[in-house]
Design brief:
- By secondary structure, the chain is mainly α.
- It folds into 2 domains: 228 residues, no CATH class; 114 residues, no CATH class.
- Helices cover 57% and strands 5% of the residues.
- The chain contains 22 helices and 6 strands.
- The protein has a 4-stranded mixed sheet.
- The protein starts with a helix and ends in a 6-residue tail after the last strand.
Length: 485
């Protein structure tokens, strides 16, 4: 009974409520444009028993060098999809999110001197504020690792130096699952650098023994070494340099600066940031340099590239814990009657989840959103022997790869940036002055494009092209035989 009673706490109600809400939201059909090609890549690796170093999927860059920097996540994803169908993919998304919440919760427990209630609130907010980015992509591993590294480094700072050695195998996994592994190595070195900062006003220095500093530097060096143990070598670290490519940054939404006029930022992100700012101003309490700098570094990166929003949300959780550690501590030792109230709340959450949760059974293909992917259009494409080369919309590329259709361009943007194909695609999509010449240069015989594109309208009114299929997601055009050449 004592073991059961230990779970009847308000923090358990909060965590369970959030996890069940996320699990319900994650059951929605897949719609991210990159998820299908990650599945296809993992399936290719499982079928061929090696990691591709050259492009096997497009027709425009087939055989050209490709840095497959996320192969480990893709293999696990494809294996789970093959053996368990959509529940396998769903389990990865919910599982990585649950681990991230748990690591943030444990970190906040340390920082809040055991205030489990506000640690649970902070952990839930750490994911909720970045919710739109929690989709089935390899970045999930990076979010989880960011939270886990924060937790382990905090334990090292508190004297449990043995945890530092866990960072080495974790870096090996990170390096093979996502190209953001340099973040983890930077975090280890940052732990050393920030330990030299003195206390200034409200900002508290946290010195480390010289022995711990030396250990962390050695661990960072070891992490660089194991990080190179991947099929792409040094390219796993240099991949992040793509963020300096102006064409990619200007063309792909996740690399844009945040649009603070959008509903998500107005009613999600801005209130989250205001909450932290107002509490920080209202409470005259010392804050460690480390977590203040983490928060503002992530904030600065998010202002430039909105894809860093999940890191900002996670970095905000420690500040919430530090600022609220003395709030409502009476709730940590509830009366028996409150335990029954919380038991009823937990049972209510579970029952509500069970009643609302849709079926997640079946293959992954049955859970592809037909309003996001050109499902019916590709069915038509494959059943009517549409000729190639095919010009496809960028966002359709991942699904085309999943269906075995060679692409002109897709979400593996780095391949197409080097060759100029991506720049040419953007000119075609936006109907730049050279678009008609590019249609001839690449000898396109067909095209699959969303309704409403400028290029779609151009082809609709071009006598050399015929619209052969149309729905609310995609139009298919075929070049007239008499104009081929």
């Amino acid at each position: 009974m004592a073991r059961v009673a230990s779970w009847l706490r308000l923090d358990a109600v909060i965590l369970l409520g959030w996890l069940l809400y996320f699990a319900y939201a994650a059951s929605a059909p897949l719609s991210d444009p990159d998820t299908p090609w990650h599945l296809a890549t993992g399936a290719w690796i499982l079928a061929h028993h090696h990691v591709p170093t050259h492009d096997p999927f497009s027709w425009s860059m087939r055989g050209q060098p490709w840095v497959t920097q996320e192969w480990l996540f893709e293999v696990v994803l494809a294996w789970c999809a093959h053996h368990f169908g959509f529940p396998g993919v769903y389990g990865i998304l919910v599982g990585l999110q649950t681990l991230t919440v748990w690591f943030v919760y444990r970190l906040c427990l340390h920082l809040s001197r055991g205030n489990a209630v506000f640690s649970a609130i902070a952990a839930a907010l750490a994911v909720a504020a970045g919710m739109p980015f929690w989709v089935v992509r390899p970045q999930l591993v990076s979010y989880m690792m960011f939270a886990l590294f924060l937790l382990l480094l905090e334990r090292v700072r508190r004297g449990s130096t043995g945890y530092a050695f866990l960072l080495i195998p974790l870096t090996l996994v990170w390096a093979n699952a996502h190209a953001s592994v340099s973040i983890g190595i930077a975090m280890i070195l940052f732990e050393v650098l920030v330990s030299f900062l003195p206390t200034i006003g409200r900002f508290q220095g946290q010195p480390l023994p010289m022995r711990t500093r030396a250990l962390l530097i050695a661990i960072a060096a070891a992490c660089v070494g194991v990080g190179l143990l991947n099929p792409n070598g040094i390219h796993e670290f240099t991949y992040a340099l793509l963020s300096n490519n102006a064409l990619m940054v200007n063309s792909i939404n996740e690399w844009h600066s945040p649009n603070f006029h959008s509903q998500y930022y107005k009613y999600g992100v801005i209130p989250f940031l205001m909450l932290i700012a107002l509490v920080a101003i209202a409470r005259s309490r010392k804050l460690p340099w480390k977590y203040v700098l983490y928060f503002f570094a992530c904030f600065a990166l998010t202002l430039v590239y909105q894809r860093f929003m999940p890191y900002l949300a996670i970095a905000g959780a420690p500040l919430i814990a530090l600022l609220s550690f003395d709030w409502l501590r009476v709730l940590l030792r509830p009366r028996p009657v409150l335990r029954f109230v919380w038991l009823a709340a937990m049972l209510g959450e579970i029952v509500d989840f069970g009643l609302r949760m849709p079926s997640i059974g079946g293959p992954v293909s049955a859970h592809m959103n037909p309003n996001a992917y050109p499902v019916a259009a590709v069915d038509y494409l494959k059943s009517h022997s549409i000729p190639g080369p095919l010009l496809n919309a960028y966002d359709f590329g991942g699904y085309l790869i999943y269906r075995g259709v060679p692409t002109f361009v897709d979400g593996r943007t780095d391949i197409y940036l080097r060759s100029g194909v991506f720049a040419n695609y953007m000119d075609l999509q936006n109907l730049a002055p050279d678009a008609p010449a590019l249609l001839q240069q690449y000898h396109f015989q067909s095209a699959i494009l969303p309704p409403g594109y400028s290029l779609t309208t151009y082809l609709e009114n071009n006598p050399n092209w015929t619209l052969v299929y149309s729905d609310n997601v995609a139009d298919i055009f075929v070049r007239n035989a008499s104009t081929t050449g």
